[in-house]
């Protein structure tokens, strides 16, 4: 799953970040370069951490976990600044809602990510919970990459949220096949992700959200 996440991120952001020179994409402001570096570092660290556990090097895994916690905090700060800056510029995906309404999507992504990572680190001594919540936290980040895959973004939230949720479905199938039951961490963490998706869409057009988004970007 960590490799699948890495491939998805690379495929989604190749035209605008990883291979931007080959695609002739316009230059990125410094904040977006920092954003790309920090969030890519999480994917690299996640692949590294899962590889260390598979190699039974949990001693190194635990030490790197401290770096992971610090990196998660940096992601929340940089992600928030990048989302607000994009809304301030009026950035919104083609065919998407106005920028202030669209801002609800990355902000909720950060809230869900923070909740899953924080809970996962709290249960670091219970590996069956820990690894599932950190995997779900990483899946939360994939929506931005999925939305940038060819023919996905223009189809709207149903497409990019739905494809992201397929990663959760794979997690559930794994538990059913291997463990014969779904672990509660996958159930509650998966529900947090899935239920947050329609909630943010319902919230986006309300006067309360628009007032809050206007305050954030002012």
What do these coordinates show?
The protein is mainly α and 218 residues long. It has ten helices and no strands. The longest helix is centred in the middle third of the chain and has 31 residues, at 58-88. It starts with a helix and ends with a helix. The mean pLDDT is 95.
In one word, what is the shape?
globular
Using only C-alpha atoms, the radius of gyration works out to 17 Å
What is the helical fraction, as a range of percent?
Answer: over 70%
Strand tally, please? 0
Unreliable stretches (pLDDT < 50, length at least 5) are none
Instruction: Give, in order, the helices and strands.
Output: HHHHHHHHHH
pLDDT average, as an integer?
95
Quickly count the helices.
Answer: 10
Distance between the termini: 39 Å
Number of domains: 1
* Strand content bin: under 5%
Report the structural category.
Answer: mainly alpha
Specify the biggest β-sheet. none
Question: What would you say about this model in short?
Answer:
With 218 residues, this protein is mainly α.
Give the SSE map:
Blueprint: H1 2-18, H2 20-23, H3 30-54, H4 58-88, H5 99-102, H6 104-122, H7 127-147, H8 157-178, H9 184-204, H10 207-217
Spell out the key features of this protein:
mainly alpha, 218 residues, 10 helices
């Amino acid at each position: 799953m960590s490799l699948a996440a890495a491939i998805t991120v690379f495929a989604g952001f190749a035209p605008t970040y990883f291979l931007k020179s080959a695609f002739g994409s316009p230059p990125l402001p410094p904040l977006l370069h920092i954003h790309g570096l920090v969030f890519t570092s999480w994917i690299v660290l996640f692949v590294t951490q899962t590889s260390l556990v598979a190699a039974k090097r949990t001693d190194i895994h635990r030490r790197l976990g401290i770096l992971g916690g610090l990196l998660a905090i940096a992601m929340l700060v940089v992600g928030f600044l990048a989302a607000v800056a994009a809304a301030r510029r009026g950035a919104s995906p083609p065919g998407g809602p106005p920028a202030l309404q669209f801002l609800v999507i990355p902000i909720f992504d950060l809230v869900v990510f923070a909740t899953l990572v924080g809970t996962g680190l709290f249960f670091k001594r219970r590996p069956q919970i820990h690894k599932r919540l950190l995997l779900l936290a990483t899946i939360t980040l994939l929506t931005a990459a999925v939305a940038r895959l060819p023919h996905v973004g223009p189809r709207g939230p149903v497409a990019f949220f739905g494809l992201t949720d397929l990663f959760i479905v794979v997690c559930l199938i794994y538990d059913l096949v291997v463990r014969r039951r779904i672990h509660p961490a996958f159930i509650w963490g998966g529900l947090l992700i899935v239920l947050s998706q329609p909630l943010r869409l319902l919230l986006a057009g309300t006067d309360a959200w628009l007032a809050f988004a206007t305050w954030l970007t002012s």
